[in-house]
Amino acid sequence: MAWSTGAELRVDEEVRDALAAGRPVVALETTLVSHGFSRGQGLLAAQDAERRVRAAGAVPCTVGIADGAIRAGLSAADLARFAERGSAVRKVGARDIAACVVHRALGSTTVGGTLAVCGLLGIEFMATGGVGGVHRGFADTLDISGDLAQLARTPAMVVCSGVKSILDVPATAEVLETLNVPVLGWRTETVPLFYVRGGGPAVSARVDDPGEAARIAATHWRLVGTGLLLGRGPDPELDPQSDPDSLLEEAVRRVQREGIVGSAITPAVLNLVEELSGGRSVAVNRQLIADNAGLAAQIAVAHTPD
């Protein structure tokens, strides 16, 4: 058994029972609750994602850190607590987990932080919005998200909307190739760019149904052992009613002028995109996250033996 419980790791009873019985579980992160949206929209996004996981026949495991322990599976009250504290919640990657636990801080896990917990528990599927990667201007800052290194060491599939397009997407794809992390495309030959269905670098392989994705994941874990990304673009009818590329570029320029760096970049850009789009980007973002969660659950169900 790949997991245990104790003072530093508290696994929700439903999640624990599902893992023990070999039923499908999908991990979900909490930075989207505290940092990804404004005015409580992150809480609604998390609730939508959990509902979609359940509707597809899997158990959601939303991960956060509270009261001196990693919490694998959060209650409605727990999620509300993360939403109420907002950006005051500590943003926790894999490197930050121990300090957050010891300091008894409230910590929302990033993709990398959530994957570290997946590794502890043996959870093989995760869903999120966009993943982190190589930041623009990397040559000057050496800023690369810890998500990538954690993907390389965790045998899990992350279903996402591709690499955040505020980043250097081609450079991120190169790093993932170096780390032997396949980037699969859900019914697309190019990496989705969050709000945009395609247009990024070529994917490692296209997949067209959950069973195919599950078979590739299982075979990859058996032969290579690293994680995988599956990029799912927005449905054609999902349109923020404006040019997402121009909005993102304008938001990135403003954030750069303000000197914002590191983990603060993404929430700052998303807030500006929301402002520039008149709030339309929020609905699109929430739908992307929910759709990714539903797909991750379908693949997890397909991966589970009858």
Automatic annotation (TrEMBL):
Family in the record: Belongs to the pseudouridine-5'-phosphate glycosidase family.
Major enzyme class: lyase
Query: Cross-referenced HAMAP family, in alphabetical order?
Result: PsiMP_glycosidase
**Full protein name:** Pseudouridine-5'-phosphate glycosidase
Q: Which Gene3D superfamilies match?
A: Indigoidine synthase domain
What cofactors are annotated for this protein? Mn(2+)
Write down the superkingdom of origin. Bacteria
> What role is this protein assigned?
Catalyzes the reversible cleavage of pseudouridine 5'-phosphate (PsiMP) to ribose 5-phosphate and uracil. Functions biologically in the cleavage direction, as part of a pseudouridine degradation pathway.
Q: Which residues bind substrate?
A: K91, V111, S145, G146, D147
Subunit comment: Homotrimer.
Q: EC?
A: 4.2.1.70
